[in-house]
Amino acid sequence: MFRPKLPAMPQPTGMVTPPVVVEPTTINPGTSTPPATVPTPTRPTVQLTPGTALALVGGGTAVVLVVGAVLVSMLLAVAITGASVAVCALVIRSLVNADAKRR
Q1: Above 80 in pLDDT, residue 15?
Q2: What is the SS3 assignment for 89?
Q3: Among candidates 59, 55, 77, which has minimal Cα distance to 67?
Q4: How far apart are CA 89 and CA 81, in angstroms?
Q5: Res 8: pLDDT
Q6: Fewest 10 Å CB contacts: which of 25, 66, 76, 90?
Q7: Domain contains 32
Q8: Distance (Å, rounded) from C-alpha 96 to C-alpha 90?
């Protein structure tokens, strides 16, 4: 009654493949392959002229200003939403209190 019932291990069904015998291969010492040389890519060097440096600074400034404006507008939207929820809560509270005083 208190002994666990172990499941019977069923025999595998379907096609059973026999194990594959791997034969060792011979290694011939002394035969070596020369190391492969990796060709280095020839890229032109980047030269910063005063005009390109000014363009990079202007582009970076524009990105910072746009990201800042987006973040400020999101903060303003959250503040306005919070203020409107607070006003709604005050109006509902005053309506509930006024209704309770009438009874």
Answers
A1: no
A2: helix
A3: 59
A4: 12
A5: 79
A6: 25
A7: no
A8: 10
